Amino acid sequence: MQVIQYPIFNLYLCDMQCALTIAGSDSGGGAGIQADLKTFEAFGVFGLSAITALTAQNTQGVQNIYAVTEAFVSQQLQSIFEDFKPAACKTGMLHSAGMIETVVKGLENQTLPLIVDPVMVSTSGHRLLEESALIALKEKLLPRAFIVTPNVDEAAILAGLKIDSLEDLKRAGNHLLTTYPNAIWVMKGGHLKENQEKGTVCDLIIGNHIHEKIVSPFRRDIRTHGTGCTFSAAITAGIALGKEPLTAIQDARHYISRCIENAPMGIGKGATPLKHSQK
Questions:
Q1: 226 in catalytic set
Q2: Which residue of 35, 107, 117, 264 has the smallest Cβ count within 10 Å?
Q3: Known catalytic residue at 269
Q4: Is the pTM of this model over 0.85?
């Protein structure tokens, strides 16, 4: 008698897009891989992950980092691509030059759009990117990027320019676009005093044929742990769902606002994590 085996799991997922995050793990659950997967789920996207580092972390800061070996990250990526077809991918914490090179090599035969969150320093001030890795980020990862989401401090480092105003942020974005013309630059303005004093956050989206502003309310709030990871993950989910880049970015910003508004107080003693699940 012939036995027919039905791929039940694949049949279940056949109408659901997948997105991949390559980033570090947050033991506090509010940022990194954990935030990315929660965000993918909120958007109705199946989340895949390759973990680059383990952090001893909570709402008050990062206490320690344990690096995953490059060989094991490579094996994670190989396992993912042998079985899944992610529609988009994002990177977060890639702490060393060797890790960046490993990720770039792991993606070299893939055509999926890459969203880069150039994580360099945590909100609490803990450095998450080795000095030597900055060159690898600029020379190997950013040329591969489809969308990049730097905050003010990261944009200043990448562009080599001082950023004190919205005009400075625009200048840095145009400079980065000249250097990496294939990428769309989402220049996040939340750290600018100019924005905070006006009570708004103004993000600049700069790319070929795209020059837009997204203005949203600025909240003097401690419910902000994991906002950078969540924002880039929301963009990645939107791209995986087939949205146009500008629409995906706008939807991600609106999503972040809701995550902050609905975040419950009292989870941890520091910056409260967001509420990723939305009704």
A1: yes
A2: 264
A3: no
A4: yes
